Amino acid sequence: MSSEGEIRHELAVVTGASSGIGLALARQFAEHGFDLVVAAEDDAIRSAARDLQQEFEVEVEAVQCDLATEAGVEDLAQRLAGRDVDAIAINAGIGSGGDFRETDLRQELRLVDLNCRSTVHLAKRVIPAMAERGRGRVLFTSSIAALTPSPFEAVYGASKAFVASFSQALRNELKDTGVTVTALMPGPTETEFFRRAGMEDTKLGAQAKDDPNDVARQGFDALMAGKDHVVAGAMKNRVQATLTRVISDETKAELHRAESEPGSAEKVKR
User: Fold this and answer.
1) Which residue segments constitute the domains of the chain, with CATH numbers given?
2) Do 155 and 111 touch, CB atoms closer than 8 A?
3) Span 136-185, pLDDT tens digits
4) Do residues 189 and 212 lie in contact, with contact meaning Cβ atoms separated by under 8 Å?
5) 101-143: pLDDT as tens digits
């Protein structure tokens, strides 16, 4: 809390901020002078917060909570109650790979809870207050997987399509409020995603990936510029995004299958 006469730093909230793109986004905000509330379910969020505070000399509060649960989202929302949130990056998400006939239902329902349900829940807790104040920036982490049917990532791809659509709908609703909404759409990025999703044996999992710091910088720049979305990472991601506009869903599904099918990593090694 700033004392009287002290300059107030803008406040940013970043979820999924203990590693990967989320941590890199938190670094972008801190580098640009934002105080932070960072959230994740694992213990690493506390050390990440300490490191950010020491490096950038901004205030960083860690909230360890499971955002795949209603209680976890409400815990974070209570920490934000009465505070002016200037920017929020709703980034927390998980993946799940494999043949839908064989994948774990509980894991996929948790994926829906985190990627979709908690995104709506947290946005509902933050955006109305932003609109009432007449200012704010919202960044949703979607994916280029949102642009194509995603065989062997069927639930994940659908969840990111939900996030992309939700983001653009809210952007239109809020266009006269002073609140901007941006969708971050990265391609394959060097994070723990593929290991946790059980996709290390796929072509996607084995190929070279983008640096999360580059992805976060592009996402932050797009957010601050008020853009509707940004396809982040390598140029090939933007080429892929452009191609999705002109080829059929059937063709897109086949192309994705070639990269996400279990065992397809062997084709990269040959």
Assistant:
1) 11-269 (3.40.50.720)
2) yes
3) 999 999 999 999 999 999 999 999 999 999 999 999 999 999 999 999 99
4) yes
5) 999 999 999 999 999 999 999 999 999 999 999 999 999 999 9
User: What Å distances lie between residue 182 and 65, 102, 166, 175, 218, CA to CA?
Assistant: 24, 35, 11, 12, 11
Assess contact for 186 and 160: CB atoms under 8 A: no
Which tokens hold the place of 119? 């995104």
CB atoms near residue 201 (< 10 Å): 15
pLDDT digits (tens, 9 = 90+) for 36-91: 999 999 999 999 999 999 999 999 999 999 999 999 999 999 999 999 999 999 99
Q: What is the DSSP string of 135-168?
A: -EEEEEE--GGGGS--TTSHHHHHHHHHHHHHHH
Ramachandran angles phi, psi of 168, nearest 5°: -70, -30
Q: Are strands 11-15 and 136-141 parallel, antiparallel or unpaired?
A: unpaired
Check 34, 152, 156, 220 and give the catalytic one. 156
The torsion angle over the Cα atoms of residues 84, 219, 26 and 4, rounded to 10 degrees, is: -30
* C-beta separation of 235 from 189 below 8 A: no
d(CA 68, CA 89): 16
70 belongs to the catalytic site: no
Q: Is the dihedral of CA 41, 220, 225, 93 positive or negative?
A: negative
